[in-house]
């Protein structure tokens, strides 16, 4: 058996395949943000103005964040089985705080290239970090409590959409950060802002459900039972999504609209809310993720091997792809004839509103970025597997 295959066998391949797939798809959305001509001015998910390809380009990336958070929960459970409860909890706490710091310092700069840090962006890594801190606390109490809280958060957080926002500004801000954030901009001083794009607790619910699901991936768990659990749970989640979408009563703050057009009706049906992740959104994305895990457990081919490379070092890939995308943006910014006077834009430096290319060029840049990161990821994957430094557990 060669060394690459040995490394694969130390991990759960279906998880790495799925994680790798969503990491690759995720880069497509960020590439569109940086390079598509209409990224700053139009909504790609609006059935009234979008095209089929543009809608798909944005919509397919809906599967990335919830799947990544869900798999992070599974990984947290599996990691905890190799340690004492106290050590596992402490590691989750430290890693969660570390991820929050990385979001503020490293990822914000990769997104903005703004050395003044006057516009800090809190996205999925922030949500994962906060969720890990909470998981560190509740996992010490009991596995059952994590599962119960996770289900309550996933199924219940949309109740806030049924009531008016709190009148008190501080309470309203707290509710937004914890439950309902949809691009909440918080001023800090005269010229500094924090943009909360990912509310904490809905994503915490997804991570907690992932943690509870991790039990199915124990090495002594029956593969046939795991398969049945994943298929049944995935199918049930999709049925709940369809039922809630048809009823339009609960589960999404933006119910579907009816058009006199079959195609627009289809787009509206699929256009579920990501910010924060609605119940319908979570059922759709996690349902598909569970079915994918069930179907790929015994997959062994060239494509699965490639995907597992990205999926085994997701944090490393995530950081690099932002810096590579923004570096390409700087080059194209000057090649387009822009000068230093146009550099300062909010929130992304080197990204004027009236800048960008057709969608096919976006896809070309995306393919180039993903392909360029394959060998660095492959190297780092092997490095992690053959070295035992403490800091490698954090990246």
Layout: helices, strands, pairs:
Elements: H1 3-9, H2 13-35, H3 52-59, H4 64-80, H5 85-112, E1 119-122, H6 124-138, H7 143-156, H8 169-180, E2 184-187, E3 193-196, H9 200-213, H10 223-247, H11 262-270, H12 279-295, H13 302-312, H14 314-335, H15 359-372, H16 374-386
Parallel strand pairs: 1-3
Antiparallel strand pairs: 2-3
Structure description:
The chain is mainly α and 395 residues long. 63% of the residues lie in helices and 3% in strands. The chain is built from 16 helices and 3 strands. A 3-stranded mixed β-sheet has the order 1-3-2. α2 crosses α13, α2 crosses α15 and α4 crosses α9. The longest helix is centred in the first third of the chain and has 28 residues.
Summed over residues and divided by their number, the pLDDT gives a mean of: 93
Helix fraction by DSSP (H/I, runs of at least 4): 55-70%
Estimated radius of gyration:
21 Å
The count of strands amounts to: 3
Shape: globular
Distance between the termini: 27 Å
How would a crystallographer describe the biggest sheet? 3 strands, mixed
The DSSP helix count reads 16
Q: What class would the helix/strand composition place it in?
A: mainly alpha
Strand order of the largest sheet: 1-3-2
Poorly predicted segments: 1-9
Order of helices and strands: HHHHHEHHHEEHHHHHHHH
Quote the beta fraction. Answer: under 5%
